[in-house]
Design goal:
mainly beta, globular, 0% helix, 54% strand, 4-stranded mixed beta sheet
Length: 85
């Protein structure tokens, strides 16, 4: 049996960069205004948690991998790949 993958897009519909944070390591990626990224995650119940907040007029989206690994792609490239072993 193979794992299936679920993906969804996040669109930065603001006029400022959106900070995307990979938790708990706190790796950051700034998503430019009007751009989108794709989050890919193994399909399972309670796979990730998305937490959004506002700090000093910056929208912050934190992604917590509660029970599965995930990938964040911007223009097809894994934005956190350089931080992986």
């Amino acid at each position: 049996m193979t794992n299936s993958v679920t993906s969804f897009d996040i669109l930065n519909d603001t006029e400022k960069d959106m900070e995307i944070v990979h938790e708990p390591e706190c790796f950051e990626f700034m998503l430019p205004p009007g751009e989108k990224l794709t989050i890919e995650v193994d399909s399972c119940e309670q796979s990730i948690i998305l937490r959004h907040s506002l700090a000093k007029e910056t929208v912050i989206l934190s992604i917590l991998d509660d029970k599965s690994y995930y990938t964040v792609r911007y223009k097809g490239i894994d934005v956190f790949c350089k931080h992986k072993l």
